Amino acid sequence: MQTENASDSAPTIYNMVSFYDNTIVVHIIRQDKSVPVEDGILWVDKYLSIRMIYPGGNVVPIDIKLDIQDFNFRLLDVNGRLVSAIEIFPVRSNFLLVTYTEASDLDDPYTYNDWALIVDLNGKIYSNISFGSAYINVATNEWLPGRAEIFINFNPDKGFLRLAPGEDNLLANGILRFSDSSSHLITAIPMVDGRYAIIYANSTIDSTLWYPFDLRGTIFAIFLEYGSNTELKPFILYQTSIPNTRFTYIDCDVSYVEFGQICVVTSEYTHQEIINKSYLNIKFLSSGAVVNFVIPSMIDFQTSLCSIDQYYIQSLPYGGYLLSGTQKIGDRVAIVGYIFKDFNEIFAWNLANPTMSNFLGISTILKNNTYVLAQPGGKQNWSLITTELFQFEKIKEHGYDNLLIDDTFPNRNVTIRSDIESLEIKYYDQVEISNGNITIFQDGGNLRQIVSGNDASYVTLKDGNNIFVKIIQSTFNKPGRYYVLIGYGFVKNKALQEPLYGVKEHVWSFTVDSETKTSSGSVMGQVRLSPEGTTYFGRLNNIERKDFHEKLRQDLANAIPVDINRVTSNEKTEVDTSQYVLSINILHDENKQEIPTSLAIKDLDILIKNKFITAIAYGEASKYLDESYGYKPNSNLWKTYGHPFIIVLVFVFLLILLYLLAKRLSSEQENEIEEFSEWSKNNLLIISLFTLLAGADVEVISLLESKIAGYSFFNAKFSEAALSKIFWGNCINLFIEDIPQVIIQIIYYREVIFYTFIPMFALLLSVVTLTINIIKIIGRLYVLFKLFKSKDHKYEEIIGNSNSDYSNIIDKDDDNLGGSIDECVF
Q1: What is the Cα–Cα distance from 779 to 809, expressed in whole angstroms?
Q2: Confidence of residue 751 (pLDDT cuts 50, 70, 90)
Q3: pLDDT for 349-375, tens place per residue?
Q4: pLDDT score for 466
Q5: CA 144, 148, 153: angle at the middle one, nearest 5?
Q6: DSSP E strand boundaries for 22-69
Q7: DSSP conformation class of 800
Q8: Which H, E and C letters describe 1-34, residue by residue?
Q9: How far, rounded to the nearest angstrom, does the alpha carbon of residue 602 sit from its chain's CA centroid?
Q10: DSSP letter string over 111-128?
Q11: Which of 126, 427, 532, 709 has its CA 20 to 30 Å from the CA of residue 600?
Q12: DSSP 3-state assignment of 443?
């Protein structure tokens, strides 16, 4: 029993809901005594007062200021029941849907519109939702709140279904409407496969002559599929030709242990002005097929302390059903309850029949089979009582909150290695793989892998009841806590083809053990956009592209997962055939808790190549990556080209060595060189070749007098005027070719993503060549300056003697520069 005392006006439990983890949320109201009760309208305090009761028994009170119009904070008497526009519904873990109404003109009910807020259990308001026009009784032009029903989907991500009284049609512009006529009943059931079953009935009371084949009542089912606009065709669940029979109520639920859905239909049969009640149980599948319908063995409830007008059915998590009925007695509601296993065997519950509740008869059933009932309130307190309901199939419960699962690998709450190759799920019954998903999360909600049952490359069935799910290498790459979410409809019963329950988050959980891993350095690499991604990226402007790179960094950091600061990009792009390639770098791991870079780049490649079963497919930017490309680290140039580079260096060294050797051998014969004219006659082919090469570099002509290896065609004798022109041509070439060439190669290096050996080696040689040319020119100009100061040497002689060692000149004293110079080598 849970009790709370209050010092203000008497608190009353107006509503009570529960979450999957057995957390209870109680909606408390208190009368606003500053406003008198008139015409049956009771005003309450103008805030949403809720109490969270957690499984350990801790109670957390929260009062939320909703900032809505005051008329929402009142209770109206509708058909003998006090109702409010403010209702709460548990839409998903730790979030409530809170309904209310807005009016642009309080005096005109046709300006009233229904709305809802999304509120978390800390009282934070996130958003509001419009439901359209509120319900107005057209006969009295009165606004009547609380007429709509909300049904939460089994998959919280798919939202909910709202049924509201309205025009007499079943589908109009995506809004389901039904008549408010008593001859037309309607309700809904969220089904295991994510669809909704809309159950409705038509019946008539006709005193005319009865014909056996005349239909007096029919119960239909329509199945709504999430996101589908296909034509809806009703299935007939039950028909009767008994005259003077009227269906008065339908209540439905799903079966937790068996398969399909079940409804309890209340009917009235009038004979000689005597009304007799009867009940019918209909069990049907998601295909529309009726499994059976029976009239349960009911106790004569009229002999109990109260007369029950209507019974409600609730499926129990551990098998069986609770059939409960209510009857208002004064300012309280009497409740009776009976537990059925197959509607032919009745079990008593642990409460008295009847048990008294508050004036609304508020109750709920938790997932652990506990029944919670609001007690009549005192002047300063409210309280709840609980009772454990009969658990028919407790022996099948192995901790998965699913009585259909026998075992799993790994088991719950164990420690595993990161290299396991598959998950295993063993069912009690024969199953078939269906189109639901199985998802692996790291604690904190980080998606690691998601697989559809239809994907035969990852999901296999063995022996009819064992499901194996392939695990990719990156899934458990980081030590810590993980859990597996089995979606509803991941498998279906083989015999009935009915989708089966799954496993909720944090139920099937285990720990991945830490392993010793070697730290590694940073890696540069690239990813490629898909054709769709290339089209999208091509339409972005520079600011949007920068934002895209930032989002991609975040997506990839979440997917690996690593610290966001380790994923960088220089925002370079280039086109590979017809698709954009983007730069992505992974920095070294400074934190020992972080994934080493070598493993991070491997996992990133796996994640991208398995894009559609990983978080990559769900990132705002990463969804545009090309799964066929993966992640490609830039090549290690030394590892790839180290041997060829060494060979080139050795070859260059040998050429230099040969050059120096040739100079040494020919130094004594320099005065015996043949005349250039005679030499040119014998080397016409060489002259032609070097004339062509001079177009690229004028300085190449000077090789003809270099005496390399003593060959005669490298033994030309140029005139001083010719060598002067070669020198100045080389100076001009330095500014119009060498320097621009190095600048262009540097720009290319800065802009490309993947820099290979050839352009790198070309840049290196260009820089070396430019440096040598600059030194040569500076050296020659320096010698020229020294010699001009002597005023005794000809310019042509200085420039022309390019094969002598000018260091001898520089080292001489300035006083000796006026002497004759026989030889200058540049």
Answers
A1: 11
A2: low
A3: 899 988 999 988 999 999 999 999 999
A4: 97
A5: 165
A6: 24-30, 42-43, 48-53, 59-64
A7: H
A8: CEEEECCCCCEEEEEEEECCCCCEEEEEEEECCC
A9: 21
A10: GEEEEEEEEETTS-EEEE
A11: 532
A12: coil
Q: CA 800 to CA 718: how far, in whole Å?
A: 8
- Encoded tokens for 388: 């454990």
Helix (H) or strand (E) holding 526, with range, is: strand 523-528
One-letter amino acid of 302: Q
Specify the amino acid at residue 665.
L
Q: How far apart are CA 196 and CA 188, in angstroms?
A: 7
pLDDT on residue 686 = 54
Q: Return the CATH fold of 398-512.
A: Immunoglobulin-like (2.60.40)
The 10s digit of each residue's pLDDT in 656-708 is 676 566 655 555 444 444 455 555 545 545 555 555 445 455 555 555 555 55
Alpha-carbon gap, residue 392 to 90, rounded angstroms: 27
Sole residue written with tokens 């990161």? 418
Instruction: Compute the CA torsion angle 371, 372, 373, 377 (nearest 10 deg).
Output: 160
3-state helix, strand, coil in the chain (%, to 5): 25, 35, 40
Q: How many CB atoms lie within 10 A of CB 817?
A: 19
Identify whether the C-beta of residue 795 lies closer than 8 Å to the C-beta of residue 786. no
Find tokens 């799903």 and name the residue: 254
C-beta pairs of 611-615 under 8 Å, 24+ apart in sequence: 613/449, 613/450, 613/451, 613/455, 613/458, 613/472, 614/447, 614/448, 614/449, 614/450, 614/472, 614/474, 614/559, 615/446, 615/447, 615/448, 615/555, 615/558, 615/559
Tell me the β-bridge partners of 93: none
b/e per residue 434-462 (b: at least 16 CB within 10 A): bbbbbbbbbeeeebbbbbbbebeebbebe
Which of 553, 542, 524 is closest to 620 using CA atoms?
A: 553
Dihedral sign computed on CA atoms, order 234, 238, 240, 244: negative
Q: How far apart are CA 715 and CA 665, in angstroms?
A: 13
Q: pTM to 2 decimals?
A: 0.74
403's tokens: 């009585």
All structural domains of the chain with their residue ranges: 7-147, 311-391, 398-512, 523-633, 670-818
DSSP string covering 557-624, please?
HHHTT--GGGEE----EEEETTEEEEEEEE----STTSPPHHHHHHHHHHHHHTGGGSGGGGSTTGGG
